[in-house]
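Session log. Operator J.P. requested a structure for one protein chain; no other inputs attached. Running the standard single-chain path with token output.
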Amino acid sequence: MAGIRISLFLFPILLVLLLVPCVFALGITPAKVEATYSPGSPQTFIFSILNNRGAANIQVGNDLARFVTEKKVYPDERGNWFAEVTFTHDASLSPGQHELEVIIGEEPKQEYGQPAMMGAQVQIGGRIILFAPSDNKFLQFKDFEWVKRANHGVNGYYKVTVENLGKEVIESLSGKLHVTSQSNPAFSVDIPLTSMNGLGYQQKADLRGEWMPGVDVPFGAYDIGPEISWDGQVLKVPPYSFTVGDMLINVTSMTPTEFEVNKITSASISVASFWSSPINYVMTGSITTPDGVEVKKLSSTPGSVRLFTEEASTVYVDTNNVALGDYKLNVDLAYEGKKTSYSVPIKVIAQKVAVVEAVPVSDVTALDGAESSSNSTYYYVGGGVMLLLLLFFIFFKRRQDNSDEV
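Structure written below.
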């Protein structure tokens, strides 16, 4: 028992010690930095390594890795670790975005003079971004702000940011946002963007648009992709995902619709959500006559429904002291300051009586005989077990008496 108590005491402590490394995961900051286009000029970047528990190593990758002249990791006098990368690029870079990936990994530990254990190494990465200009016209996509959860009847605002990385002026800019459905390939909508003229070298432009989804846009998941037209060319950006919904839940059906009198019976109702997040609700209900006179109030029940799904919920129908006949069951779902109501005709019926099938006398006699036979078997077995227990008791008693005499 003492060993069990010690184990139960130590188990929470060991669990906490195992979870501590998960809480303090290896990290790096900043996660992304932008370098300037400057052929022949060295550029140095320093990253802070977070939660490093020992020695670390550094690796570099992507197309700018060939220009790296120095890379190192080191601690300061306080034990904080840093990664430092220096690179010098030339003028051979093609116009557009280039990257240098900086990968930091923890060194495997060596204990008691043994070789370091081989295994999965914890790694984290940072990025250095460089945009190379063009001697001609070159438009670069920079950023996109979009409505991730669009609603029926609510205006949404969108912004596409682009930059001219060419040394020639871009005369005109315009564009659209192309919307497609993830479930219906035939559906598409184009949202116009604002236009502008005269975008100079290293200048940025924001093209804006707005869209209010109507009832002709079904609830569901969609993709939206910017398409920018500039001086006879088109820049197409890979699409982003969003949803169209409404803060709305409905009750679509209920079963059963007949309930026995003077009972509390559970019924299953289907709750459908048209919103892009889970919705919590409180369900209340009542039984009324067909012309609306309340005869019974039902207890409230909390529930929830996931995004864009239809799920079953339970309502408890209390027919105690309710007369037989036709009624209406009314269910109200209260959520986020809104309410959804649902009514369905029901019938309160008499309690069903269990039917016992008559058994012929001969069968009863046979059953009685079988039961007597079964009872006799139990008696024999029980008596045999008791006799064995008595014999064992006498045997051990005599052995104890003999040992006492010796």
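Operator note: The radius of gyration is 39 Å.
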